[in-house]
Amino acid sequence: MRRLQFALALTLAAPALVWSDSGEVKRYLYLSMPDGAQKEGRSNAGILVFDIDNGHKFVRRIDMPIFEEGLRGFAGNLAKHSVYYSSTNHRLGRFDLESEETVWEKVYDAGCDRSSVTLDGKKIYVPTGWWYKGEDSGLLVVDGETGEIMKRIPVGPAAHNSIVNLTGTKLYLGTTTMLSVFDTQTEKLLMQVKDVGERGVFPYTIDSRERYAYVCLGNHVGFDVVDLKTGEIIHRVFAGDEKIPNRTHGAGLTPDESELWISDQRGKKLFIFDATKMPPAPKGHVELSQGGHGWVAFSLDGTYAWSHTPDVFDVKTKKLVATLRDGTGTPVSGSKFMEVHMRDGKVVRIGHEFGLGRKYSD
Predict the structure, then answer these.
(1) Among residues 71, 356, 73, 88, which one has the least CA distance to residue 204?
(2) Under a CB-based contact definition with an 8 Å cutoff, are residues 32 and 71 in contact?
(3) Is the pTM of this model over 0.90?
(4) Which residues contact 22 (CB under 8 A, 6 or more apart)?
(5) Closest by alpha carbon to 41, among 352, 295, 299?
(6) Cα–Cα distance for residue pair 229/213, rounded to 1 Å
(7) Environment class of 55 (CB within 10 Å of its CB; exposed 0-12, middle 13-18, buried 19+)
(8) Closest CA to 147 of 173, 122, 170, 169
(9) Percentage helix, strand, coil, to 5, in the chain?
(10) What is the CATH number of domain 26-350?
(11) pLDDT (tens digit, 9 = 90+) per residue, 294-352?
């Protein structure tokens, strides 16, 4: 298999990370940058590794010069122990987390946005991009081993965020005010929910039983609740005492599905809702140190909340417990990150860039 050669360098004058043979599982946060959608918190092109269990301290940097194009997606796959990065310049690549080599890399004419991967790593679903509104806008189905296009599926304009569910059976895709659901075995369309999210196409999340989808609003801070059994929008929920006229970019369920957090990136807040109620009820918010693209996701054990800022929050107490800083001590941030668990240099578990409910899946 052809492997592109990239220099892998450390920002600190130290040897490459040596994995312990103790059998201990180490948890890391892999933050790719620069984020193609925000200028705040940028550092040099590459993947920054943070030790989750050691105060989110900076461990090292993996230089990836091609990331200068700006990252649009950062999907992970345990079966192939890899992350799949997409860039503003229509580039998609597979990076092996164990060998730390780029396995393949391709550029597609239409583009590639936040992609998703089947559980076996054999297929990658690549949205053609929120910027592309041609009649053939939709999905590229890409061979996970080679990066070659297997088929193209027209769906709707501005195909943006895609999610393969935690069981690997369904694919969710957001296009302009529409949420589509496909069968991953056949790519057959199962459902389309139209007129969702007010305007544009913004992030969403789903619970582990796939009973509900929570879709961010485009004109206000809030979300639509979609009944995934009927395809109906059953609630529209706004944050704040009065409607906040900012778009919402980022929605995440805590792994236990007790809370829904949404991002008000312009207002520098994450609003929190009680997701055990329907519609979800407001519980408060946390203040962010900066604005930016907007995002929110959680550690697999539900302890930490991460967003598009350097701020790390304790989910239970809602307190700021860490700040992500690079090797120079500068706060860094972006919305393309992944939790990775390693044992003796092998990936044993990998997270998801979306804040997906996991109550009935793990």
Answers:
(1) 356
(2) yes
(3) yes
(4) 344
(5) 295
(6) 10
(7) exposed
(8) 122
(9) 0, 45, 50
(10) 2.130.10.10
(11) 999 999 999 999 999 999 999 999 999 999 999 999 999 999 999 999 999 999 999 99
The arithmetic mean of pLDDT across residues 128-154, rounded, is 95
Give the DSSP per-residue string, 232-276.
Answer: EEEEEEE-SSS---S----EEE-TTSSEEEEEETTTTEEEEEETT
Q: How far is Cα 354 from Cα 228, in angstroms, rounded to an integer?
A: 18
Q: Which residues contact 258 (CB under 8 A, 6 or more apart)?
A: 274, 275, 276
* pLDDT reported for residue 21: 54
- What is the per-residue burial (b if ≥16 Cβ within 10 Å, else e) of 267-286? bbbbbbbebeeebbeeeebb
Domain ranges of the chain: 26-350
Quick check: bond before 282 cis, omega within 30?
no
pLDDT digits (tens, 9 = 90+) for 239-249: 999 999 999 99
- Asked if 215 contacts 354 with a C-beta cutoff of 8 angstroms, the reply is no
Question: What residues pair up with 173 in beta bridges, in sequence order?
Answer: 162, 180
- Flag whether pLDDT at 92 surpasses 50: yes
